[in-house]
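Risk register update: the risk of archive-format incompatibility is retired. Evidence:
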Amino acid sequence: MKKRSFEAINYMLRPNKNVERKLIVATLKKLQSQFDIPNYRYVGFGSMWFSDFVLVHRLLNICDLVTIENQKSRKKRVEFNKPFACIDVRMEDAATALGEVLDEKPSIVWLDYDGPLKNAVTGDLETAIGAMSSGSMLLVSVNAKVEQLRNNKIEDEEVSPEAFLANICEDKGLLQKKDQLTKNDFPPLVAQILHDRIKSAVLDKKPGCEYIPIWSYRYADDAIMVTVGGMIADAADRAKFVTSGAAELSVATGLTLFDIELPVLTEKEKRALDKLLPSAKNLDPTKLEFELRPGEVAAYQRFYLEYPIFGELSA
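Archived output:
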């Protein structure tokens, strides 16, 4: 049996992904002053790790939780690893489940794909948006490695990367994006494509509402990943969003891509850095007893409170 990514990778041990989840939850906590977040429904792809579910339940007190898993052969394993009784496990395709579990109740939906961009442009997000109410939020994550565009065929004929991209996104304008199909430029293009697709779906399926972009993250624990998302809002919810002050958070960057680039540290290295923090001054990498690049030190200094702590417990 072919392994899924969640069986090959411990999702709890990815520092950048771990921090991304915490930044999203921090934004949601800021929104709590105006939105009844604890009474929202959270829908995601928990797999067998349920890392995001644990966070939103513990830190946001959300008790209406739904995980979607389309690999029915993994049902027993997913059910066994479910950390809380309030999680409903739906063993079906996202396109089917999203139309059934979303209703007029405000919701937070995270379509956290571990695969390429084409996985996110199959109609799932349009299905979700069509069933979501004002005040709800949608996040989408995809692999943003440019290599996914190479060596592809359309109707058994090999096509150029830009032609493949235009085909999967149904956007002929992408045929002109050749200069952006590089390792560094492709992730921002992916973020733009996803934001545009969400905006278009909101305009099409939710009359009287608009899309407020909130999150745009790029990170790499292994593969380069992009996460974008925001709120579906009518005029009243837009005013509440502005009042909440969430847009003023440094990690709620809207359409601007925010890089999460934390170093992988040993426990001893983390302890050494923590002894120097908090600090009003930037830490000097040359004064450390071990080598880290300036960017890595700066990133750790900014997010040291969110940096995950891993340990091994012996019996």
